[in-house]
Amino acid sequence: MLKNKYCFIFVLILLSGVSLLRAQYAPENKKFGFGIILGDPTGGTAKLWLNRENALTFSLGSSFFGSPRIGVDYLWHFDAFETDIVNLYAGPGGIIGFGEGDGFWYKKRFVRTGNGIGLAGRGIFGIDVVPRRTPLEIFFELGVLLAIVPDFGSAVDAAIGIRFYP
Fold first, then answer.
1. What are the backbone dihedrals phi and psi of residue 12, each rounded to the nearest 5 degrees, phi first?
2. Of the ranges 8-17, 88-97, 147-156, which is most confident?
3. What global pTM score does this model have?
4. DSSP string spanning 133-149?
5. Of the candidates 74, 52, 38, which has an alpha carbon nearest to the alpha carbon of residue 162?
């Protein structure tokens, strides 16, 4: 419950500062940015704008269970709010995971199963905000994963992050 309150307060603060923000093709119209992402995955992120509506994002970090993973997404940005303040984006992607696989709880401890490589397809949906006259992009995204290798399965991940455009 307390977590939901903090999320609600964060959204209110974000929306109250809307007059100071404006979304654009990329911060200061630069094509490449890098930064940090927290959630699933937690690690580094980069974004390469291909044109005004499309971009590739890359992530390298650890998953919720601590295994390293690499991800690539192809994004379409669209102006759902009919403003120059906030952009929504969506697109397909893929993930390669390394190391220990899934697990399960047994007698009050988490037991890991398997080692190796995992592959998953991903559908992503997110929102990004670009503060005025700064080389920064702040984003929040949700992804739905469909595991292909070593077994079929599904998962949901969420992350928040910030990118700097030098």
1. -60, -45
2. 88-97
3. 0.76
4. TSSEEEEEEEEEEEEEE
5. 38
Closest by CA to 27, choosing from 49, 6, 10, 9, is 49
Look up the CATH number of the domain holding residue 20. 2.40.160.20
Tell me which residue range forms the domain holding 129: 2-164
Cα gap 135→47, rounded to integer Å: 13
CA gap 88, 134 in Å, rounded: 19
Q: How far apart are CA 92 and CA 44, in angstroms?
A: 19
Determine how β-strand 54-62 pairs with β-strand 109-112: unpaired
State the residue for tokens 């890991």: 112
Residue type, 147: A
**Integer CA distances (angstroms), 105 to 66, 77, 159, in order:** 16, 39, 24
Q: pLDDT averaged over the chain?
A: 80
Give the pair of three-digit tokens for residue 40: 């699933």
> Among 69, 50, 70, 55, which Cα is nearest to 139's?
55
Question: Into how many domains does the chain fold?
Answer: 1
